[in-house]
Design a protein that fits this description.
- By secondary structure, the protein is mostly helical.
- The chain has one domain: Four Helix Bundle (Hemerythrin (Met), subunit A).
- The radius of gyration is 15 Å and the shape is elongated.
């Protein structure tokens, strides 16, 4: 697998996540936040997939290291900010050849982004009541 594809996916994920955070900070429309978050999640998922192909069996052992506990309550903005930092670190690591570390950070960011999507969906459902 090409590192260029992984770098490109991580860059796109970072752009979408930054858009999501900017929209959230400016009290923008929830649908815009959700759309950007979905795009960031999709790009992150693609990067994780490509990294898992590169790592093969090694990827299976590293993905569980940074699994966030679902028992803790989480707020949207801090989750997105943490995911952003993880993706920045992942991008740096892929550029310097730290593929396993890139995978771990991308996986952790992926989990945070999924939880953030769940939070947005929960807020949307509560607003409909």
């Amino acid at each position: 697998m090409s590192r260029d594809k992984i770098e490109s996916a991580l860059s796109a994920a970072l752009r979408h996540l930054e858009d999501s955070l900017n929209t959230l900070s400016n009290n923008g429309a929830e649908t815009a936040v959700s759309d950007s978050l979905w795009s960031a999640s999709a790009e992150t998922e693609y990067a994780v997939f490509l990294l898992s192909l590169m790592l093969g069996d090694t990827a299976e052992g590293t993905s569980g290291k940074h699994t966030a506990s679902s028992k803790h309550s989480m707020e949207l903005k801090p989750a997105l900010t943490t995911a952003l930092e993880l993706l920045k670190n992942a991008k740096t690591n892929i550029e310097t050849g730290g593929i396993e570390k890139c995978y771990e950070e991308s996986w952790a960011a992926r989990n945070l982004l999924l939880k953030a999507q769940e939070l947005l969906e929960k807020k949307r459902k509560e607003a409909k009541k």
